[in-house]
Amino acid sequence: MQSRTTKFIPVRLSLADIVGPDYVNAVTAARAALTEDPPQSLRALATRRISFFPREMQERLLELLPRVGRAVSRTLDRSATGAGTRGFQPVTKVAHAPLAGFGYYRVGESGSLHFIAKSEHYHAPLGHSFPGYKLIDIARQLGIPNATHNNTRGHITRLLEEELVRAAAGQDGTSRAAFTRLLRAKKPSSPNRVLNLETGSLAAEAALKMILARFYKPQADSHKPRYGGRTPVIVVIGDFEGGIEANYHGTTMMTQIMRGMWRDMREGLERRGLFAVRGVRPNHTVELEWVFDEFDRGKYKIAGLFHEIVLMNYAGKTLDPRFVRRMYALCKKHDVPTVVDEIQTGVWSPEMFLYREYGVKPTFVAVGKGFPGGEYCASRILFNSEYDNLPQFGALVTNGQEELASLAYLITMRWAQANARVTSAVGEYYESRLRKLGDKHKRVVAAIEGRRHLAGVYFHDLASAKKFAELLSGAGLDVSVQTYKAGCPPSALTKLPLIAGYEAVDMVLSRMESALNQVGR
What three-state secondary structure class fits 415? Predict the structure, then answer.
C-alpha cells in the first residue's frame, strides 16, 4: 500500500526570533566587550535563520526506511565494559548502544540501523540531530552561559517560564493583559508559577513538598499548616490487583513509597499518623468515591491526588475522560490539590499538555523529558500560586536554571506547536490503524491501549508478548515488554517520535503485522 505523503510545516527561526532582539543586542554587545569580536558578525550569527526540519533531511530519513534492522556500518569491536550495578548490567544491550543518531534512527554498536519506536525512552520527540537545536550551538558561540544559579535566573529561563504558563492556560501570547492577570491571580484557574529543576523525579517531589506543607512546617518560621495534626493521605492510580504499584512519579524516596516500594517504612509512617497512600484502580469510579468517603474525614485528610493520563509505566493504560473529570470534581469539593504528571505525555499532545484535551484544571503539572528533546536534563513543575509556600531552598531549585536547557524547551515547543495539526493527524492515524490490526489478530492481541503515538499492545499471555517484542527488536524496532508490576497485562509499548510521518508509521505497522502473523502460528 502506498503511504500518504506527510507535509510537515516548515519552521525557520533565528535565535533572535525566539529570545527577542533586545536580548540578542545586549548579548552581542557583552560578547564583543569580552572578546573584541566584531559586533556585526555576532549579530549576523544571532539573526541567522535555521531550518528546523529541512526537506532534505526528511527525504533522507524516508530513503533509509527499508534498511531498518539491517547492518549499515561497521561494528564496534572493542567496547567499554563499564562499572554498572547488578540491576543495570544484566539488561544492558551493548549491541543497541548508540554510535550515531539521525532523525528517528540510531546506529547501534552492532552497526545495525534501529528505528527509535520509543523515542529513546521518551527523551527525543524530535529524534536525533534535530537541526533546530543548532540554535543552541549558536547561543554557545555567542557566549550565553548554561550554568547559573536560582538568584540569577536568566532571560531565556524566565521567558520559558512565561511560555509554559501561557501554554498551560491555552493563551496564544497575543494578550499581555490576560497573561498579567493570570500571573497576579491569587486563586488562578491555571498554573501561574514555575519551579525549574533537573529531573522529573524532582518535579514530582517538589509538588509533594508543597502539598505536605499544608500538614507540616517546612521550617521553624513557616506559617501554621492548615491541616496540621491530621494524617495526609496521597491518592494514586493503583494497579489492577488493588495495590498501589501502577503509578510512577519518580525515584525519590517518598514517590517510591507512593508506588509500593519501602513497604515497612510506609506502614510505619501510617501507624504513626504521619503519611498514608491509597490507590484507586484505573477508571474505577466506585473505588474512587469510596476512598474520598473513607479518607477525607476524622484523623485523615486527603492531601493530594497524583495521576498520569496514559500510564506508560503500566502497559499504557489510559484513563477515561469521565473518570478523570470525576476525580477533579471530587478534589475540588474536598479541597484536594491535583498533580498531573505529564513527564511522559507532554509535547506529544497538540495542546502541549494532554490534560488540556480532558478539560480539567490541575493544581500542579510536572513536565520534562520530551520538552528539552534529549539535549539536556531539565524538568519543570507548574503550579498555582496558592501553593507557593516553600522557602527559597525548599524545592532543590538551585540546579535547574540552565539557559541552554531552557532554550532547548523553547525550540522544541516552537516546532511542535507549528506542527500540532500534522502530528496529531499522524498520531490518530497510527492509533486507528493499530486498533484495526489488533482486531484482525484477536487470537493473539487482547487489547490496544494508549493515545495517538503512545501505544500499548496487550497480549493474552506473556510468551506471546515477549516473542512479539523479540521479533520487532530483530527487525530493528525499539519495543519493550512490561512484566514487572502487579497485575500488569503482558504488553508491548511504543512511543513514536513526532517527526515520524505516515510513511514511517506504515513501516512500523507492516513490521508489527508480520510479527503478529509469526506469533499467531
Answer: helix
DSSP 3-state assignment of 335? Answer: coil
Per-residue CA distances from 262 to 126, 199, 256, 303, 394 (Å): 37, 21, 7, 20, 24
Torsion 301-306-311-315 (CA) sign = negative
Q: How far, in Å, CA of 403 to CA of 148, rounded?
A: 8
Going from the C-alpha of 313 to that of each of 310, 318, 462, 512, the distances in angstroms are 9, 11, 17, 21
Q: What is the C-alpha end-to-end distance of the chain, expressed in Å?
A: 24
Q: Where are the domains of the chain?
A: 52-129+419-521, 196-401
Are the C-beta atoms of residues 360 and 328 closer than 8 Å to each other?
yes
A 10 A CB-CB count for 83 gives: 6
pTM (2 d.p.): 0.94
CATH architecture of 196-401: 3-Layer(aba) Sandwich (3.40)
- The tens-digit pLDDT sequence of the chain (521 residues) is 677 999 999 999 999 999 999 999 999 999 999 999 999 999 999 999 999 999 999 999 999 999 999 999 999 999 888 888 888 888 888 888 889 999 999 999 999 999 999 998 888 999 999 999 999 999 999 999 998 887 889 999 999 999 999 999 988 877 888 889 998 988 888 999 999 998 888 999 999 999 999 999 988 888 899 999 999 999 999 998 889 988 888 899 999 999 999 999 999 999 999 999 999 999 999 999 999 999 999 999 999 999 999 998 888 899 999 999 999 999 999 999 999 999 999 999 999 999 999 999 999 999 998 999 999 989 999 999 999 988 866 655 556 889 999 999 999 999 999 999 999 999 999 999 999 999 999 999 999 999 999 999 999 999 999 999 999 999 999 998 876 676 788 999 999 999 999 999 999 999 999 999 999 77
What's the topology of domain 52-129+419-521?
Aspartate Aminotransferase, domain 1 (3.90.1150)
Cβ atoms 43, 24 nearer than 8 A: yes
Q: Which residue has the cell 559586533?
A: 39
List phi, psi (to 5°) of 206: -60, -40
Burial class of residue 493 in the structure, from the number of CB atoms within 10 Å of its CB (0-12 exposed, 13-18 middle, 19+ buried): buried
